[in-house]
Structure formats: structure tokens, C-alpha cells
Amino acid sequence: MIENVFSGSDVSEFRFWMGWADRYVILTHMGPDGDAIGSSLALCHYLRSKGKQAVVLVPDSAPDFLKWLPGADEIKAYSDNPAASDEMVSKADVLCCLDFNVVSRIGNIASAFLYSKAKKFLLDHHPFPGSYFDVILSHPEASSTSELVFHLICALGDFRSMDLNMAECIYTGIMTDTGALSYNSNYSSLFNIVSHLLDKGVDKDDIYRRVYNNYSEDRLRLQGFVLCEKMQVFRDKSTSLITLTDEELRRFNYKKGDTEGFVNMPLQINGVLMSAFFREDKEQGIIKLSFRSVGDVPCNRFSSEFFHGGGHINAAGGEFNGTLSEAVDCFLKGLDVWSGSSEECIRRLFVK
């Protein structure tokens, strides 16, 4: 039995739009990950199956390890053709906003988005959604936005017509946003969804290999360098930090997606409760920040308090406008807030 997390009123307006709207543009965030791409492509396949014109538009291109997904070759990147992308947004009847909660997360698409007269639909699992959306389906308790796409299709009465393309995209989003169902996934209804996706023909083992066992030699050597030379462990704070400069990335012929999962690795160390990863992005002139934690230690609060970032209790991120050394200084000052034994400090600072 499929649990319905949306009430009839939640989806009624979107259902009404489906009656008259023909042109849909699906937007997701900068640096799209597996959930962003998986959920967007799944919704795109669904809308096309209903006879709609649908396209996925991203601020910048998806990482290579996701380009095998059905429909990924048709994704449009704003950075490749800004003028055509702006026109696409302006002509849309409905803008479907997936896996982000505030307009700033779509980068250079934001201007066209704000000027567009299209209906704006938000489907997301990040807390504290912003304004500028006509309909908001926000469920922070969900494992992923891909899970919510599954529920949306079911709520619209179309589970039986869900095909393998939709199912593969949804499963990929769920898998990548839960570390292959190792976190943010401790509830039976999610595994019920996975079971239904397997019944649709999804080969979860093959998807795992395509995503996690499909890296280049350079990426594996970069991982070794990170673990040996770049990982700092602050045992008295139960925290770890990894930093990578632009020069270090170029040394290993960095490609988008090569650092995926690095922030999770220090959490394998006994006693480490929170991990941070800072990457220098010379192209955008910022430092990309990622945080992960375990149990009831909310790294999103650390990200928010010290870096104006945000996210989920165990997975958060942000951006820092400054140098890498300044970002590290800010991080260390945040750690200095704590005193005494590490686990007690983190819980005293964060857990209420």
C-alpha cells in the first residue's frame, strides 16, 4: 500500500494547471546532485507522458556520473546559452522548482524566474522555503525531493503509468541523497517506495555501480591525497575538516562531481560527529561548503550560525565569500565556541 503524504488540497491547484498548461520548465539548484537531477528528470518524464512540453533547465551542467540517466542528454544548462534559457523561462506556463528552497539557489536563472509570469510550483525537502512560489509542497521530513516526486505522481493517480525511466530517476535521487539508504532513511515507508520501484524494473545494484563505481583514476588518486594529506581531525571537538584549493584540484585533473562523497568519509572515524569539506571555486570566486553529521547533531545549525548556510540536520551546505584561509578561520572560531569534552559540547551548543 502506498502512503499518501499529500492531501487533496495540496495537489489540487497543480492538477488544475495540468488541465490548461502545456509548457513546463523544471528548475533545480546550482551544482546539481543526484537528487536534483533524478527528481527533475523523473518529473520531466512524467509530464511528457501526459502530453506536456517539458524541459529540465539547470544553472550549470550535471556531473558526469549522472549523465547515463534517461533523458540526461536533453538537460539544458543556463551557462551554455543564457539568452535561449531566459526565453525558455519567459515562455513557460509553469515553472517547477525542485530540490531548492530559495530563489538564490538557481544562480543566474533567478532574474528570468522573478520576471516570469508563469505559475511557480515548489517541490522540496529543505526546511524554511522562501516566497515567490504560487504552490509550495515542502516536506523536510522526506529523504529526498525524488521521494516527493514519487508521492506527487501517486497523488495525481498515475502510479500505474509510472515507467522504468521515471523509476530509475527517482531511485537514483533517493539513493544519492541517503548515502545508499544509510542516513535520512530510517522509516519503513521509504523502503516501501523502493520496493515499488524495484517492481517497476529498477536494478538497484546496477545503479549503484553506475553512480559510485564509475570514477576516473584521477578521482581515486585525489581521494587518497585527501585522506592522507588534507583531512584534519579535531578529536577534542569530535569534528573533521577537509580543504582543497583550486591548484590542488587542477593537479588531479578535477572534473565536476569528483569530490562527491568526500565530506562523508571522516564520519567513518570513531568519535567524529561532524565533518566539513571546503572547496575553492575560482570560477565563481567563492568557497563551496559542505557539512555532514551523525545522530542528533544538527550540522545545519552550525552552517547557519557561522556561514549563513542551511540544510538538513545531518546534511547541510553553503557558500563563503572570501578566501579559503578565511573560511577555515571562521570554522575554527565556530569550534572554539565549544569547551570541555567534544560530544557534550556539541550537544550543549546545538541540541535543545
Plain-language structure description:
This protein has 352 residues and is α/β, with parallel strands linked by helices. The protein has two domains: 8-212, inorganic pyrophosphatase (n-terminal core), CATH 3.90.1640.10; 217-350, Diaminopimelate Epimerase, Chain A, domain 1 (Roll), CATH 3.10.310.30. It has 13 helices and twelve strands. It has helices at residues 8-20, 34-49, 82-91, 110-115, 145-155, 164-177, 188-199, 204-212, 217-230, 246-251, 299-307, 324-336, 342-350, and strands at 23-27, 53-58, 76-77, 94-98, 119-124, 135-138, 231-234, 239-244, 274-281, 286-293, 310-311, 315-320. Strands 3-2-1-4-5-6 form a six-stranded parallel beta sheet, sandwiched between helices. The chain is globular and about 55 Å long. The two termini are 36 Å apart.
In short:
With 352 residues, the protein is α/β, with parallel strands linked by helices. It is 40% helix and 18% strand.
Strand order of the largest sheet: 3-2-1-4-5-6
pLDDT averaged over residues: 92
Count of separate DSSP helical elements: 13
**Rg estimate, integer Å:** 20 Å
* Helix-strand topology string: HEHEEHEHEEHHHHHEEHEEHEEHH
Principal-axes geometry comes out as globular
CATH architecture of the largest domain: Alpha-Beta Complex
Question: Could you state the CATH homologous superfamily of the largest domain?
Answer: inorganic pyrophosphatase (n-terminal core)
What keywords describe this structure?
single chain; 352 residues; alpha/beta; Diaminopimelate Epimerase, Chain A, domain 1; six-stranded parallel β-sheet; 13 helices; 40% helix; globular
